[in-house]
Write a structure and sequence with these properties.
Belongs to the class-I aminoacyl-tRNA synthetase family. The chain has 10 helices and 10 strands. With 298 residues, the protein is an alpha/beta fold. The strands form 3 sheets. Strands 3-2-1-9-10 form a 5-stranded parallel sheet, with helices on one face. Strands 4-5-8 form a 3-stranded antiparallel sheet. Strands 6-7 form a two-stranded antiparallel ribbon. It binds glutamic acid (GLU).
């Protein structure tokens, strides 16, 4: 029997906060409980926002918490060729089309449509308007000309084509802390024609995460509930790319006193700041509901 494989996959675009600590400690606890391995993956495709000092801080903060992980650490920025290969598969399968729209153009196309029928335009689970399909059926000559002219473009999933090609139904298995599993239905279509290759980066979070989880043999994904809806899209990508679907556990999010989830963008107090205030790793573990001392690895 092969060992279960878990991973913690932070992005080095800010300092880690207690929410990250919770996710990392839960991965560690479940990996130990299920006799598995723990990997660390640095999700740094966003070259403009990720910084080497934040990556160094991730290693420091996690080691300070008492975590250990396998080396070498996979850094996404070193593997763009893997995401490119997956993109070419999507393209070969007719699953994507290029989109030349700017954010502003998408917003104004949606605004026009919203005004006309007098009802709100549908949103994806992240709250963004579904793509209205402006570039979906461009003539191939025009596509080639615009790409050859160097016009910036992203690549979107063609959900209409995919519904016909791979109608589903979709789902995955979720597991709890005791290892009980149950089936969950997934609805990838609610994402609309989601971007899978961005204009500024030759991949996207969704594409790289499914490629990496498969390449690293991840069997158990433990991450926050804020990514639960994204799993619906991930199972569709796995189906198109012929990749296995891991088991998933989406844990509750830590919130600040105002009820907002902790986030780097909201400048939630970082682990480094808590450390500077004199908090010990044991205190943090206890505060987050984990045993005070790291259990020795077996
Ligand atoms: N890199 C993502 C984040 O920092 C996590 C992705 C995942 O666990 O699938 O929120």
């Amino acid at each position: 029997m092969t060992k279960p494989v878990f991973r913690f996959a932070p992005s080095p675009n800010g300092r880690l906060h207690l929410g990250h600590a919770y996710s990392a400690l839960l991965n560690d606890e479940l990996a130990r409980r299920f006799g598995g391995r723990l990997l660390l993956r640095i999700e740094d495709i966003d070259i403009a926002r990720c910084r080497p000092e934040f990556e160094t801080a991730i290693y420091e903060d996690l080691a300070w918490l008492g975590l250990r992980w396998e080396e070498p650490v996979r850094r996404q920025s070193e593997h763009f060729e893997d995401y490119r290969a997956a993109f070419l598969t999507l393209r070969r399968r007719g699953a994507v089309y290029p989109c030349f729209c700017s954010r502003k153009e998408v917003a104004s196309a949606v605004a026009c449509r919203e005004v006309k029928p007098g009802r709100p335009w549908p949103r994806d689970p992240d709250g963004a308007p579904l793509y209205p399909g402006t570039c979906r059926d461009l003539p191939s000559g025009e596509i080639e000309r615009r790409i050859a002219a160097g016009e910036p473009h992203s690549w979107r999933l063609d959900m209409g084509a995919l519904r016909a090609l791979l109608p589903g139904p979709y789902g995955y298995r979720r597991f709890d802390r005791e290892g009980r599993e149950e089936a969950v239905a997934a609805d990838p279509w609610r994402w609309g024609d989601a971007v899978v290759v961005r204009k500024d980066v030759p991949t996207s979070y969704h594409l790289s995460v499914v490629v990496d989880d498969a390449l690293q043999g991840v069997t158990h994904v433990v991450r926050g509930q804020d990514l639960e809806a994204a799993t619906d899209l991930h199972v569709l990508l796995q189906a198109i790319l012929g990749l296995p679907t891991p088991l998933y556990h989406h844990h509750g999010l830590l919130r600040d006193p105002e009820g907002d989830k902790l986030a780097k963008s909201r400048r939630s107090q970082s682990l480094a700041e808590l450390r500077a205030e004199g908090l010990t790793p044991q205190a943090i573990r206890q505060r987050l509901g984990f045993a005070g001392q790291p259990t020795p690895s077996t």
